[in-house]
C-alpha cells in the first residue's frame, strides 16, 4: 500500500532498457530551493516539475553510480548549473561519472528548511548512500537500491554488508518514515519491518 503523497516531494519513474528507474525531487516551500536525488533515465519530467513549481535546483545527490541512476546526469547538470555529489567510496568505482563533488557518510546538506543526512548503506555498491530528509511533513529516506518494497536491493557487492547496513541505518528510522527506493513503489519502514 502506497504512502499518501506529501507536499514538497515528488517521485519520477522513467524507463531504462527492460526496467524502470526512480528519481526524486524534494524542495523547501519557502525558499523554493530543490534537491534532486539521482537523474533516472530521463530528467525531462524533473525539469518540467521544477518549472511548474517555480523551483531552483540547488543540489543533486546521487545514491550510487550505477548507470541507470546517473545516465541523464549531464543533461540535469547542464539545465540546473547545480553541483552533484556522490559518496567518496562510490566515486572511485568503475563507471562513476567524473568530476563530481564527494562527501563522506555522516555529512549533512542543508537546503532552506530541509536537512539531509547521509548514511552509508553499502552492499549493493561500495558507497551506496541513504539520504534522510528532515523538514517535510513526514520523514523521507531516499534509499537507492539498498532495499525495495518487499525485497532486498540486488547485492552485486556484498549481501551480508547490505543486510547489516539496511537493518542498522534504514529499519531503525521511525515506523512512519517514507522509504523512496531506486526501483518499484514507495513504502514505509513499518511496512518493510512487517513484510520484507
Keywords:
alpha/beta; 6 helices; 196 residues; single chain; 6-stranded mixed sheet
Encode the helix/strand succession as letters.
Answer: EEEHEHHEHEEEEEEEHEEH
| Cα shape | globular
Question: Could you give the order of strands across the largest sheet?
Answer: 1-2-3-4-5-6
The main sheet comes to: 6 strands, mixed
pLDDT < 50 stretches: none
Strand content: 25-35%
Helix content: 10-25%
Q: CA-to-CA gap between the ends?
A: 14 Å
Mean pLDDT: 91
- Going by helix content, strand content and strand pairing, the class is alpha/beta
Q: Cα-atom Rg, whole angstroms?
A: 15 Å
- Total beta strand runs: 14
Annotation field: number of helices: 6
How would you explain this protein's 3D organization?
This protein is α/β, with parallel strands linked by helices and 196 residues long. The chain is built from six helices and 14 strands. Strands 1-2-3-4-5-6 form a six-stranded mixed sheet. It starts with 8 loop residues before the first strand and ends with a helix.
Short account of what is shown:
This protein has 196 residues and is of the alpha/beta class.
Helix-strand blueprint:
Elements: E1 9-16, E2 19-27, E3 33-37, H1 44-52, E4 56-61, H2 67-70, H3 73-80, E5 83-87, H4 88-91, E6 101-103, E7 108-111, E8 114-120, E9 129-134, E10 140-144, E11 147-148, E12 151-152, H5 159-170, E13 178-181, E14 187-188, H6 189-195
Parallel strand pairs: 3-4, 4-5, 5-6, 10-13
Antiparallel strand pairs: 1-2, 2-3, 7-8, 8-9, 9-10, 11-12, 13-14
Amino acid at each position: 500500500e502506497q504512502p499518501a503523497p506529501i507536499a514538497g516531494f515528488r517521485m519520477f519513474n522513467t524507463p531504462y532498457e527492460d526496467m524502470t528507474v526512480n528519481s526524486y525531487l524534494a524542495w523547501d516551500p519557502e525558499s523554493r530551493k530543490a534537491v534532486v536525488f539521482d537523474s533516472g533515465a530521463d530528467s525531462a519530467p524533473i525539469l518540467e516539475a521544477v518549472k511548474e513549481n517555480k523551483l531552483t535546483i540547488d543540489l543533486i545527490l546521487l545514491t550510487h553510480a550505477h548507470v541507470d541512476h546517473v545516465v541523464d546526469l549531464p543533461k540535469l547538470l547542464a539545465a540546473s548549473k547545480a553541483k552533484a555529489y556522490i559518496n567518496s567510496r562510490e566515486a572511485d568505482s568503475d563507471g562513476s561519472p567524473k568530476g563530481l563533488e564527494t562527501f563522506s557518510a555522516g555529512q549533512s546538506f542543508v537546503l532552506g528548511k530541509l536537512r539531509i543526512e547521509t548514511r552509508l548503506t553499502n552492499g549493493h555498491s561500495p558507497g551506496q548512500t541513504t539520504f534522510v530528509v528532515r523538514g517535510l511533513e513526514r520523514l523521507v529516506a531516499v534509499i537507492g537500491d539498498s532495499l525495495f518494497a518487499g525485497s532486498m536491493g540486488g547485492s552485486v557487492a556484498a549481501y551480508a554488508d547490505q543486510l547489516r547496513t539496511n537493518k542498522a541505518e534504514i529499519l531503525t528510522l521511525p515506523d512512519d518514515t517514507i522509504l523512496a527506493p531506486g526501483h518499484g513503489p514507495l513504502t514505509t519502514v513499518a511496512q518493510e519491518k512487517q513484510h520484507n
